[in-house]
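Q: How do we represent a protein-ligand complex in a form that can be generated token by token?
A: Start from the inputs.
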Amino acid sequence: MTVAPRPQWRENVAMLVPILLVPDLGPDREDLAAYEARAGYRALRRALEGPASAVLEAVDAARLRGRGGAAFPAAVKWRIAAAAPARPKFVVANGGEHEPGSEKDKFLVARRPHAVLEGLLLACFATGADQGVLYLIGDMAEQIAAAEAALEEARAAGLVGADILGSGFSCEIRIHRAPSTYVAGEESAAIDSIEGGPGKPRKKPPYPGESGIDGRPTTVNNVETLAHVPFIVREGALAYRALGTDESPGTMLFTLPAEVAHPGVHEVPFGTTWRELIDGVGGGVRDGRAIRAVHPALSAGFVDAEHLDVPIAHETLRPLGSSPGCGGVRLVLDGDDVVARLLEVARFFMAEQCGQCPPCRMETNQFVHVLQAVQGGKGPGFDAQIRKVADFARKKGNCSLIEMAAAPILSALDVFATELATAAGGGA
Ligand SMILES: Cc1cc2nc3c(=O)[nH]c(=O)nc-3n(C[C@H](O)[C@H](O)[C@H](O)COP(=O)(O)O)c2cc1C
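Then emit the structure tokens for the protein with flavin mononucleotide bound:
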């Protein structure tokens, strides 16, 4: 598929509240000495002096939500895993980022691998896991090299392996190389790949927390989610909740597209408005064109330009039929061919669905067919057709790709109602 050119990573010099993207660190991988110089591994050292439950309580009190797209409360998942008696127990740091327009996980692993590693170790400690897996895509050479180097440094410093820092807590961490597909980032697909399978989503239940890798309790978290944990443990839940909003605490990484003056990965607190993010942090649209809509992530609903002053948070975007998603922001600008942009999204999901679930195959194919008809000016009834297909397919897949593919198209029916009706030849 054609997507916006991969943006260059750029440190956010205008950042207000650095948790993950500390400025002035230079363009290279942050090594152990540099990470420790900015309080790195202090959270782990402190945590290991107390009970594992204290870490879980801090993450719960911080109301940390997943950054992999679904915004699930981390502590809820961790509690299930912590309560499971079986050993071995696993935590997977999901860095299988494959969504066009999203670069933040690749950025974190390549440039701040110790923050991810410390978060992963804290999650293992909190859930009683003795095995951590850093899940990366096999062709991510830069990320794999950075993770391997960080792991080696951490192991040499006694931060990974047996009896970490003499605390009695032992935890092995390894890197898994996943297939380069979108679905391989889904948590049960990740487990399948780690077990040696093709990396396709599995039917749930059982959920990974009960039965994951080799049937053992497994917690899967996005690498960004984990990278927030050291700050929470070190500075406290209240300091974390002082940032962001009540329901969406803390900061989030957003990847801004090539159309803005400063594309790349930026960290802002939740509650920042779209206008502040795009015009303030991102420097505005390069060619001065007006924004028609914001697409917070490929699988999120579109946000009409009339809502550019809405603060970015789960609770403010939900009523608009959208979400922060994984923060791989795309822009629809005045003059863009809306139907072509929608087809690009629909074709991505059609190509990336794994073929296991007939309703998902049907839905993603139908979206493309209906939008092609609209593009050809032969789309009367497209609105009803799209809604019918999405209604039929909902919840009928092994994973939520079936809902993720529908979200942007359904929201487009409202946000781009005029453009779609015009293209279709007058009638929805
Ligand atoms: C098709 C599909 C692809 C996904 N890709 C990713 C991914 O690349 N990275 C990720 O962290 N989560 C991905 N997820 C979400 C994971 O299933 C899971 O919810 C997430 O890793 C949990 O982490 P979090 O709770 O910290 O967000 C994907 C989900 C689906 C349905």
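The domain at 338-423 is CATH 1.20.1440.230 (de novo design (two linked rop proteins)). The first helix runs from residue 32 to 37.
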